[in-house]
């Protein structure tokens, strides 16, 4: 085996075993021998709290935005790759972008490909192979994510939605006021009024689009999530000969948080696979319902009731359910089959605020963090605590350092994931 082959195997092993937050770095290390680049950006809807995973030039990865990646994805074909100039991190860059079967997008800025056609084709083939592997691993790792990741990701998703909605409301009011003024009959310059009106309307549309896009990232309609489950199980239905019946949820049911939708599909897939391993199973029924606060899952079979609630497969699925503070019960009836009930809460569970003791915050710092988690700005915090805004900023710097975060949004998400919102 050559040294190049050994290096490739080592890179694949590192990529496969990488934790979620390091997968972009491992992927970039793996592809650099084939395609040079200044930055690598993964845009995935599997991670609703962290849709971007990035490595490379800090000026790019610190400023690239979801709307930019969303606009780029509209230009990328369903299969193959796309090359051209695109706006990334507020500036135009040469870009190489690849889609994936999981609907994730890979973006390389300033790509460097071999000039020889055969070498270029081989470099693109290896890039496609490594990216496909990484995209599948992201999807699998999200399904198997530990409770801490799920809690933090859901809190970050909710906070991002709240901040975006706040920005939309604020700027929409400003722009609507501007439109009313520009349409006033007291303004004589019609051409100027028309031009500025068009610009303001465009800005409103863009703001609304960002808000809608953010909502789509953190939530998935229950009917859409169930249809994706059906597509996941279609190959099994085709090759196993087992009749999998789907009882669909109400179309108007509450939308599912992204982590719940992904986990629910993984749980049902696991249950169905465990069930079909039993002899004499001819039919499996999968049903979803929603009571407004929980996703209700029911999977049952017509076998001989040989499914073991203590089997390793069922234990792993039960751990996934527990990660979302859900419940799973398995009822096995000899000669009649098995009936599995799963309940997944739709709202993020709150961890005890006592967990915050480990952060080492002083009493005043904890008060500032609680008000920050409640959505208060520096001026409001200073007013409630009778301290200056400079003192608030001083406490916030200490809080960020102790929590290991770099922004208000990250601090708020971490506080929410520890239940701090309920203490304000």
UniProtKB/TrEMBL annotation:
One record GO biological process: regulation of DNA-templated transcription
Organism: Arthrobacter cupressi
Taxonomic lineage of the native organism: Bacteria, Bacillati, Actinomycetota, Actinomycetes, Micrococcales
Keyword Membrane: no
Protein name, entry field: Regulatory protein, luxR family
CDD domains: LuxR_C_like
Keyword terms of this UniProt record: DNA-binding, Transcription, Transcription regulation
Single annotated GO MF: DNA binding
Pfam families linked to this entry: GerE
InterPro entries noted in UniProt: HATPase_C_sf (IPR036890), Sig_transdc_resp-reg_C-effctor (IPR016032), Tscrpt_reg_LuxR_C (IPR000792), WH-like_DNA-bd_sf (IPR036388)
Gene3D superfamilies linked: Histidine kinase-like ATPase, C-terminal domain, Winged helix-like DNA-binding domain superfamily/Winged helix DNA-binding domain
């Amino acid at each position: 085996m050559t040294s190049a082959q050994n290096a490739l195997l080592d890179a694949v092993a590192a990529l496969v075993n990488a934790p979620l937050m390091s997968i972009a770095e491992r992927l970039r290390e793996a592809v650099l021998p084939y395609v040079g680049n200044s930055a690598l950006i993964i845009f995935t809807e599997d991670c609703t709290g962290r849709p971007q995973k990035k490595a490379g030039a800090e000026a790019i990865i610190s400023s690239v935005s979801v709307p930019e990646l969303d606009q780029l994805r509209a230009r990328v074909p369903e299969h193959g790759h796309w090359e051209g100039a695109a706006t990334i991190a507020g500036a135009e860059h040469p870009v190489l972008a690849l889609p994936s079967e999981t609907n994730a997008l890979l973006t390389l800025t300033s790509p460097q490909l071999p000039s020889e056609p055969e070498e270029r084709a081989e470099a693109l083939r290896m890039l496609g192979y490594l990216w496909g592997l990484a995209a599948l691993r992201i999807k699998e790792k999200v399904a198997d994510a530990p409770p801490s990741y799920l809690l933090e990701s859901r809190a970050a998703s909710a906070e991002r939605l709240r901040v975006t909605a706040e920005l939309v409301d604020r700027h929409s009011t400003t722009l609507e006021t501007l439109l009313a003024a520009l349409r006033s009959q007291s303004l004589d310059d019609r051409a100027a009024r028309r031009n500025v009106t068009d610009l303001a309307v465009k800005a409103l549309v863009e703001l609304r689009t960002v808000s809608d896009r953010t909502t789509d990232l953190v939530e998935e309609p229950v009917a859409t999530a169930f249809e994706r489950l059906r597509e996941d199980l279609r190959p099994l239905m085709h090759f196993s000969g087992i009749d999998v019946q789907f009882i669909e949820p109400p179309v108007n049911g509450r939308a599912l948080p992204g982590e719940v939708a992904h986990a629910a599909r993984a749980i049902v897939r696991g249950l169905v696979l465990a069930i079909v391993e039993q002899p004499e199973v001819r039919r499996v029924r999968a049903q979803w319902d929603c009571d407004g606060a929980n996703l209700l899952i029911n999977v049952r079979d017509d076998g001989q009731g040989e499914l073991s609630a203590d089997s390793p497969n069922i234990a792993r699925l039960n751990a996934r359910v527990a990660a979302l503070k859900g419940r799973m019960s398995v009822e096995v009836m000899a000669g009649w089959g098995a009936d599995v009930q799963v309940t997944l809460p739709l709202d993020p569970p709150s961890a005890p605020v006592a967990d915050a003791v480990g952060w080492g915050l002083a009493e005043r710092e904890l008060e500032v963090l609680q008000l920050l988690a409640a959505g208060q700005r520096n001026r409001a915090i200073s007013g409630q605590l009778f301290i200056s805004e400079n003192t608030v900023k001083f406490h916030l710097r200490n809080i960020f350092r102790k929590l290991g975060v770099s922004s208000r949004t990250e601090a708020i998400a971490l506080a929410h994931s520890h239940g701090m919102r309920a203490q304000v």
